[in-house]
């Protein structure tokens, strides 16, 4: 698969690629990427999962504009981050994004539906390596490679 992975997002020799488990049963409703209660969120839901690759879709609306009529790159990166993050969580541990590398290959007009796919390229200790891509009308529009880091449950404790 074509990816933009740098040395920091390329798994070392010997990293394993685990099969994905079922998505976590409790998702956080307030999550910008997947939460049902996040009123300004993008509410991604899995549309496919085959044990290795997870799929979802995201429709760009006016509130996501950067330039007139075109998606803001940060929104596309957020959607990729969420897709990759959901795969990381399906490895069965808690991960957060440490590094996210993104290529924006074509402008994405408002009204487009971005078909997103994400997968794991390897796990090495606390590090999980993820890649993903988004197609619009069959054309590769965005792609990403990321390093996720496993964290303890305390990472998500509410801050004062
Ligand atoms: C309650 C139920 C909820 C259920 C819910 C389910 C939802 C299921 C879907 C979730 C989907 C989420 C999708 C969104 C995902 C986010 O958006 S997460 C939010 C954005 N990310 C963050 O906020 C992370 C902020 N950063 C941090 O907290 C800390 O920097 C980190 C990443 C935990 C690392 O800190 P640390 O634990 O002290 O680890 P550290 O020793 O610094 O690094 C460990 C190793 O990783 C390397 N490393 C760390 N950072 C980097 C980096 N940026 N670049 C390269 N290498 C790095 C280090 O060099 C080190 O390597 P080695 O020396 O071991 O070889």
TrEMBL record:
<dbReference type="InterPro" id="IPR006683">
    <property type="entry name" value="Thioestr_dom"/>
</dbReference>
<dbReference type="GO" id="GO:0006631">
    <property type="term" value="P:fatty acid metabolic process"/>
</dbReference>
<keyword id="KW-0472">Membrane</keyword>
<protein>
    <recommendedName>
        <fullName>Acyl-coenzyme A thioesterase THEM4</fullName>
        <ecNumber>3.1.2.2</ecNumber>
    </recommendedName>
</protein>
<dbReference type="Pfam" id="PF03061">
    <property type="entry name" value="4HBT"/>
</dbReference>
<comment type="similarity">
    <text>Belongs to the THEM4/THEM5 thioesterase family.</text>
</comment>
<keyword id="KW-0276">Fatty acid metabolism</keyword>
<feature type="domain" description="Thioesterase">
    <location>
        <begin position="69"/>
        <end position="136"/>
    </location>
</feature>
<dbReference type="InterPro" id="IPR052365">
    <property type="entry name" value="THEM4/THEM5_acyl-CoA_thioest"/>
</dbReference>
<dbReference type="InterPro" id="IPR029069">
    <property type="entry name" value="HotDog_dom_sf"/>
</dbReference>
<keyword id="KW-0378">Hydrolase</keyword>
<dbReference type="GO" id="GO:0016787">
    <property type="term" value="F:hydrolase activity"/>
</dbReference>
<keyword id="KW-1003">Cell membrane</keyword>
<keyword id="KW-0963">Cytoplasm</keyword>
<dbReference type="GO" id="GO:0005737">
    <property type="term" value="C:cytoplasm"/>
</dbReference>
<keyword id="KW-0809">Transit peptide</keyword>
<keyword id="KW-0443">Lipid metabolism</keyword>
<dbReference type="GO" id="GO:0016020">
    <property type="term" value="C:membrane"/>
</dbReference>
<keyword id="KW-0966">Cell projection</keyword>
<keyword id="KW-0053">Apoptosis</keyword>
């Amino acid at each position: 698969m074509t990816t933009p992975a740098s040395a920091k997002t390329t798994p070392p020799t010997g990293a394993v690629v685990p099969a994905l488990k079922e998505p976590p049963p409790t998702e956080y409703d307030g999550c910008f990427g997947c939460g049902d209660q996040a009123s300004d969120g993008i509410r991604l839901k899995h549309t496919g999962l085959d044990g290795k690759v997870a799929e979802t879709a995201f429709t760009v609306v006016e509130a996501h504009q950067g330039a007139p009529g075109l998606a803001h790159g940060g929104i596309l990166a957020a959607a990729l981050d969420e897709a990759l993050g959901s795969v990381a969580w399906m490895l069965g541990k808690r991960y957060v994004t440490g590094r996210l590398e993104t290529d924006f290959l074509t402008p994405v007009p408002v009204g487009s539906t971005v078909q997103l796919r994400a997968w794991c390229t390897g796990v090495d200790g606390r590090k999980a390596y993820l890649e993903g891509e988004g197609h619009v009308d069959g054309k590769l529009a965005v792609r990403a490679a990321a390093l996720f880091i496993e964290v303890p449950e305390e990472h998500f404790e509410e801050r004062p």
